[in-house]
Amino acid sequence: MPNHGPENLSNRNRTAEAFTLTSAFWFAAATSFGLIAAGYLIAPDFMANIEYIHFGRIRPMHVNAVLFGFVTPGLLAAAFYYVPRLLRTRLFSQRLGVFNAVFWNITIAYGMIAISTGHTQAREYAEFPWVVDIMVVVCFVLAVFNILMTVRRRKEPILYVSIWYVCAAVILTSITYCLGNVIWKPDTGALQGIPDAIILWFYGHNIFGLLLTPLALGLAYYVLPIATRSPLYSHTLSLLGFWSLIVVYTHIGAHHLLQVPVPTWLKTISVVDSVAMVIPVMVFLINIWYTVKGKLGEIHSDIGAKFVFTGTIYYFFVNIQGSMMALPYVQRITHFNNWVVGHAHIGVLGFAGLLALGGLYYILPKLTGRPLHSRFLADMQYWLVLIGITGFAIDLTTVGLIQGNAWYNGETVYRILPEIHPYYVLRASLGVLIVIGAYTGLYNVIRTLYFNRGAKS
After folding, report:
1. Rounded to an integer, what is the distance from CA 237 to the centroid of its chain?
2. For site-directed labelling of 395, which of 12, 184, 272, 425 has its Cα 20 to 30 A away?
3. How far, in Å, are 253, 258, 267 from residue 264 at the CA level?
4. pLDDT of 10-57, one tens digit each?
């Protein structure tokens, strides 16, 4: 079981609080952007005269707000809480951490305004203009410095696996972001032709696999053993999972390029490693599920642990789906349609998003020294998000199969649109549930942090 650290470390952790509020705010904003985008898929003229939020702009705003505004700060909030405790020391600098959170919000807000006003590099997950790219890198460098200096000052000689994951995530992402956004070319932020596609999808997968995934797994390794009062099933398996993730995930981005003229050896590596992702995923799941075996009651009673455990289940599904859709025979049906969109939602919201929310709800009572403002609202958010994302998975996967099979058999795009329109209506309806859940969570977080005079049942 991870060590809690000495009790005198219970002073208010302003860095974790700041990142918690950041995550909750941008979750509400990001889902609002997503709901607007879903509206365009039902009615293409929906608010089409408002250029700042037409589909070509609101969609990348939604994606980047979810990735950099909601999930990453949520996972970092938990990391800034548990890293000092596992190391039996204090965070190197609370002032630096709070500044990091404030600057993070300024960066994301600037990025949203830039995309909304048409200033974009027009590359997947790399839409931010060059100035915002530099600001993002600064954000990660500040986090790297604060975390590594905390590790350097530690009083605990043994590094628990969560520390490995957090350090890898922030260090590797600092490098990956620079490469993927081609920051040495401020005029374009891109290379030319196939080399740009290769480097973009190296970045496009690793911004998830080397950022969200390690942070999420590190959080699960911290929360679930403590919540269930169980020792970690195997420290050896945790390290095997860590190193296999770092080795295997790094090379799978090119499976997005099987239909384009990239070198065959690169395609082969990407497909093989995509299938091999079953190794780090199943090693982690076996380790964490055996750790909590027979303890579902304790998980259910802790709202943070319930979010986290549910996220691990989605981790299983997103891996099985991802490995399968990397196969050329499968990809001829699933590529370029809503199957991929559903896969992204399962991974980012179902896996990493639920873990981020679980981390927030787990650390909030410990940050404030008081129970959550409302356990009922937290449970309501859990079910709203769970129903929404499960519905997304089924709905978008179904739409993707309809589109892929129709195109494969020679149908044109416009002939399919009337057939899938009801599914887009269902998608937007499910999005409403998630938006309500996001705003419910924001309210609960604010009340817990600043206006919590007594907890409700």
Report:
1. 23
2. 272
3. 14, 9, 5
4. 468 999 999 999 999 999 999 999 999 999 999 998 887 899 999 999
Structure tokens at 290: 């055996």
Of 143-147, 424-428, 451-455, which range is least confident? 451-455
Distance separating alpha carbons of residues 233 and 128, to the nearest angstrom: 42
**What span, in angstroms and rounded, lies between the C-alpha atoms of 397 and 101?**
36
What domains, with CATH codes, occur in the chain? 7-449 (1.20.210.10)
Cα separation, 151 vs 157, in Å, equals 10
Q: For the segment 385-428, what is each residue's pLDDT rounded down to a tens digit?
A: 999 999 999 999 999 999 999 999 999 888 999 999 999 999 99
Query: What are the angstrom distances between the C-alpha of 427 and each of 32, 59, 336, 388, 416?
Result: 14, 15, 18, 9, 17
Residues of the chain above pLDDT 70, percent: 96
pLDDT reported for residue 1 = 58
SS (H, E, C) the chain: CCCCCCHHHCCCCHHHHHHHHHHHHHHHHHHHHHHHHHHHHHCCCCCCCCHHHCHHHHHHHHHHHHHHHHHHHHHHHHHHHHHHHHHCCCCCCHHHHHHHHHHHHHHHHHHHHHHHCCCCCCCCCCCCCHHHHHHHHHHHHHHHHHHHHHHHCCCCCCCCHHHHHHHHHHHHHHHHHHHHCCCCCCCCCCCCHHHHHHHHHHHHHHHHHHHHHHHHHHHHHHHHHHHHCCCCCCHHHHHHHHHHHHHHHCCCHHHHHCCCCCCHHHHHHHHHHHHHCHHHHHHHHHHHHHHCCCCHHHHHHCHHHHHHHHHHHHHHHHHHHHHHHCCHHHHHHHCCCHHHHHHHHHHHHHHHHHHHHHHHHHHHHHHHCCCCCEHHHHHHHHHHHHHHHHHHHHHHHHHHHHHHHHHHCCCCHHHHHHHHHHHHHHHHHHHHHHHHHHHHHHHHHHHHHHCCCCCEC
Please compute the mean of the pLDDT values over residues 152-170 and round it to a whole number. Answer: 96
pLDDT per residue over 180-224, tens digit each? 999 999 988 999 999 999 999 999 999 999 999 999 999 999 999
